[in-house]
Amino acid sequence: MVFSSLLFMFIYLPVVLAVYYLSPVRWRNPVLFVANLVFYGWGEPVYILLMMLSITVNYVNGLLIGKYKGAGDMRRARAVLIVNVVINLSLLGFFKYYDLIVTTLSLLPFIDIAPLGLTLPIGISFYTFQTMSYPIDVYRGDADVQRNYISFGTFVALFPQLIAGPIVRYKDVADQLGFRASSIDQFSSGVERFIVGLGKKVLIANNIGALWDIYSASPSELTTLGAWLGIAAFSLQIYFDFSGYSDMAVGLGRMIGFEFKENFNYPYISRSITEFWRRWHISLGTWFRDYVYIPLGGNRNGLGRQLCNITVVWALTGIWHGANWNFLLWGLYYAVFLIIEKTFLLRRLEKWPAVVGHVYTIFLVVCGWVMFQLEDISAVGLYFSAMFGGGSGLYESRDLFYLGSYGAMFAIGIVASTPLGARLYNSVPPKVRAVASPVLIAAALLLATAYLVDSTYNPFLYWNF
Question: Are 109 and 139 contained in the same domain?
């Protein structure tokens, strides 16, 4: 992974950008399409075939839906859409959930089905949701039919956000697939945004994540202080890891003329779980809202139906993240608190002092990360037990050592995860910022590169989704 990161930044990306900008405008989508497939095949060449199948199925079905709608035959258009959804979900279900299902069924004494042990195609959850959005939007009339196969394939396999999001919907970039303006300012803004994301991932997430790895290795031996230090470290790691990738995707998109929507908006300053999920992984939340929650009826058919719809959406949101029952538990955990907020608590939180809402939200989110990251349910129980005094005591000497060693990193992470860091930077006089900004960006790139060269610890949390 270390070699791949450096190879991407200093060989693949410069070559792709050079070929892209030296090509005539009409050839830029074909160049990107080939570059996207090379990028994806870099890790798992065999799964290029799966991606091509996904592209082809959704492209053809989009054409058919457009044809039947144009002829006024909505019954056939709806039938094609249903078939398309079934095919997409079947592919995702087989490659991601087959082993989980058969392993669970094999607990029954009369069923004995062997798991296949398939390697999970990188980013399959992201690109499946992206491709599904296109035929749905064509059916709804929210997007025009894309008749150019290469342009559609470019959208599906777009390398900036292919493997770790954000989820880009077709209707949001349809115009950009046909024409993309480019400028020096846009390109330089993209470079800056990419390096900021790289710094988040490599300099903050990786460093603070090492502490989580230490404490999560042995949940049965944790002290109370150690358990809280560990999960606090993971809370910062996952934010800077995923928001860092989102920043890199936005930056890379700008380098080639695309503008992607933001995926994070300081979620750790939220005053409720409802607000948190409006700020965290925005592209996933809006996808489930527009393509699952609202079609199920949303809040249009009474409170009981709305609460049922929330439960369904969050069960699906949980299991989308991974083929393990802990993710379903995590999703239902959030469903419970969102339902509580929807029925009565949110109104009270809005009246109480802001600090109450912040503490309530951060406490629940941090506890939720325990269920999210520990796949073994028994380990989840042991970790919670340690957090609330049922472990190996309140603290031990190593906890104090790690608290001192990682104290500065915690402080940096907390400030950088709130608007305070941006406010401090913007308070600097513009003339000073104009000089300091390029220096800071160059320093971040240099430090991140040095880290990648020197370290073997570079986990990719969201590549498995």
Answer: yes
What is the percent of the chain where pLDDT is above 70? 97
**Is-contact 208 237, C-beta < 8 A?**
yes
Domain with 399, as residue range(s), is: 186-464
- Note whether 239 and 267 are within 8 A (CB): yes
Q: Within this chain, do residues 225 and 241 fall inside the same structural domain, yes or no?
A: yes
Report which residue type is found at 144.
Answer: D
- State the pTM of this model: 0.92
Whether 410 and 449 share a structural domain = yes
Residues 166, 196, single domain; the answer is no
Which residues in 6-35 are b (16+ Cβ under 10 Å) and which e? eeebeebbeebeeebeeeeeeebbebbbbb
Give dist(CA 253, CA 190) in Å, integer: 7
Contacts with 254 (C-beta within 8 Å, 6 or more apart), sequence order: 186, 187, 189, 190, 193
Domain boundary among 122, 156, 179: 179
Residue with tokens 């941006």: 422
pLDDT tens, 36-47? 888 888 777 888
Domain-terminating residue out of 144, 179, 214: 179
Whether the Cβ atoms of residue 242 and residue 282 lie closer than 8 Å to each other: no
Q: Are residues 120 and 214 in the same domain?
A: no
| Structural contact between residues 88 and 54, judged by C-beta atoms closer than 8 angstroms | yes
Task: Identify the active-site residue in 28, 169, 271, 321.
Answer: 321
358 is catalytic: no
pLDDT in tens, 283-326: 999 999 999 999 999 888 888 899 999 999 999 999 999 889 99
Q: How crowded is the C-beta side of 216, counted as CA atoms within 13 Å?
A: 20
Q: What is the maximum span of the chain, computed from C-alpha positions, in angstroms? A: 75
Same structural domain, 138 and 199: no
Residue bearing tokens 């830029």:
28
Q: What is the tens place of the pLDDT at every residue in 148-188?
A: 999 999 999 888 887 777 889 998 888 898 888 888 999 99
Structural domain count, the chain:
2
Residue 4 has pLDDT above 80, yes or no: no
Q: Are residues 154 and 201 in the same domain?
A: no
CA angle 160, 163, 167 (to 5 degrees): 75
Question: What's the confidence (pLDDT) of residue 45?
Answer: 83
Nearest to 200 by CA among 415, 363, 453, 359: 415
